[in-house]
């Protein structure tokens, strides 16, 4: 990670920087949230809610349920034109807690600074808002083994006329709202390359390549820790008295490509935990995985990864039905075979999943999602009196945002 940090600093130093205007954005009729605008200050309130329904089929031991999957409320804005702030609360599944709280120094567009609690710069999927996911869930490798929100400081910006976006930060290395438990810190870095952004080609101009990496030393109690899928099924479970005191390294590479009404995304991630102990035995635990996702708007809207504004908002009396998008994803997650030798660990070495979905956007504030997911496990899982190696589920979501 030290090499990555040096590389980014060299890019900043030797790039031909054009200082663009980075002032308070002007309000438009299509802005999300409620805006309060002063001469050089801005305050915006925004949020979203998701009500989900999950129902398993076949061999799955899971149960059907309705739940408030996510409920978020944020206050964000600018001070004096160049200072941005965020206070972001989450009320997921009825529990209130802080999600993000940070301040940004935005005086230099090629070297901005953010300090507080926020997403560390790792993974394309992880940095995509949960309200704008192509399918209802993130891939298993991202949900379970990517870094998340953490407290720290980050340098980020855009250089070489926007061909390169970068971010590098130092973080505690523990989950959000969790006290630090050792002296070491995580270094996390990400670079996004957009080599064809100025081409007039509609095929290549919106393609980007990302690389992420992180490294740190962690102290964590893995006793009885579980890794689960969306249905709550644990596909990997650690036994008693398992501690980890050693390095945690992550590497990821991703591709994002928008062409007209179609998008294609792919990502690979590997995570390596060192320093596992159980009965004085040292072990290494590796997890790696990938996914590929493709989406397409049946109603012709441009696919750009941002909030969708239908060409014709829902109005049955005029024969308008909003925007419709289809999505499909294949993913795989593999655990190192030696991991099953760590104490009393249980689970499967390999999990794959195939997901299909349709997204309906009656307008730019409402999104209704239907997904079908099928999981396949390389080893039998046993929960209660059920033993199975496959699971299937139908998922439904009603989402609103303001």
Q: What report would you give on this structure?
A:
The chain is 5% helix and 55% strand. It is mainly beta. The chain has a single domain, classed as Beta Barrel (Porin), CATH 2.40.160. Strand 7 and strand 8 form a beta hairpin.
Key attributes of the depicted protein:
mainly beta, Porin, 402 residues, globular
User: How much strand?
Assistant: over 45%
Q: Name the assembly state.
A: single chain
- Helical amount: under 10%
| pLDDT averaged over residues | 89
Number of helices: 2
The SSE order reads HEEEEEEHEEEEEEEEEEEEEE
Would you state the CATH class?
Mainly Beta
Could you give a short account of the major beta sheet? 16 strands, antiparallel, barrel
Strand order of the largest sheet: 2-3-4-5-6-7-8-9-10-13-14-15-16-18-19-20
| Computed CA radius of gyration, to the nearest angstrom | 22 Å
State the CATH architecture. Beta Barrel
Structural class label: mainly beta
CATH topology: Porin
Low-confidence stretches: 7-31
Superfamily (CATH H level) name: Porin
Termini separation comes to 39 Å
Indicate the overall shape.
Answer: globular
Number of strands: 20
């Amino acid at each position: 990670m030290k090499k990555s940090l040096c590389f980014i600093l060299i890019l900043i130093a030797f790039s031909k920087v054009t200082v663009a205007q980075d002032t308070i954005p002007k309000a438009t009729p299509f802005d999300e949230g409620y805006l309060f605008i002063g001469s050089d200050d801005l305050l915006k309130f925004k949020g979203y809610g998701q009500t989900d329904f999950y129902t398993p089929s076949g061999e799955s031991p899971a149960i059907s349920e309705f739940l408030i999957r996510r409920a978020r409320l944020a206050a964000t804005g600018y001070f004096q034109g160049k200072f941005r702030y965020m206070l972001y609360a989450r009320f997921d599944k009825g529990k209130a807690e802080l999600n993000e709280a940070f301040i940004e120094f935005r005086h230099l567009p090629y070297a901005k600074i953010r300090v507080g609690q926020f997403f560390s710069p790792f993974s394309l999927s992880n940095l995509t808002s949960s309200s704008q996911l192509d399918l209802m869930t993130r891939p298993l490798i991202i949900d379970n083994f990517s870094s998340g929100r953490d407290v720290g400081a980050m340098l980020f910006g855009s250089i070489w006329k926007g061909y390169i976006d970068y971010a590098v930060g130092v973080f505690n290395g523990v989950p959000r709202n969790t006290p630090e438990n050792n002296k070491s810190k995580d270094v996390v870095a990400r670079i996004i390359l957009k080599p064809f952004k100025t081409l007039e080609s509609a095929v290549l101009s919106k393609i980007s390549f990302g690389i992420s990496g992180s490294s740190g030393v962690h102290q964590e109690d893995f006793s009885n820790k579980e890794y689960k899928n969306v249905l709550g099924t644990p596909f990997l479970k650690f036994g008693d008295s398992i501690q980890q005191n050693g390095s945690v390294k992550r590497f990821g590479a991703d591709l994002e490509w928008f062409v007209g009404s179609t998008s294609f995304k792919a990502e690979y991630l590997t995570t390596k935990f060192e320093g596992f102990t159980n009965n004085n035995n040292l072990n290494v635990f590796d997890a790696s995985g990938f996914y590929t996702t493709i989406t397409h708007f049946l109603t012709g809207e441009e696919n750009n990864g941002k909030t969708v504004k239908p060409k014709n908002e829902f109005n049955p009396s005029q024969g308008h039905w909003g925007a419709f998008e289809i999505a499909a994803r294949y993913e795989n997650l593999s655990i190192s075979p030696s991991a099953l030798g760590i104490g009393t660990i249980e689970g499967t070495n390999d999990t794959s999943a195939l997901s299909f979905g349709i997204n309906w956007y009656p307008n730019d504030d409402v999104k209704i999602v239907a997904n079908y997911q099928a999981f396949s496990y390389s080893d039998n899982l046993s929960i209660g009196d059920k033993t199975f190696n496959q699971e299937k589920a139908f998922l439904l979501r009603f989402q609103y945002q303001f």
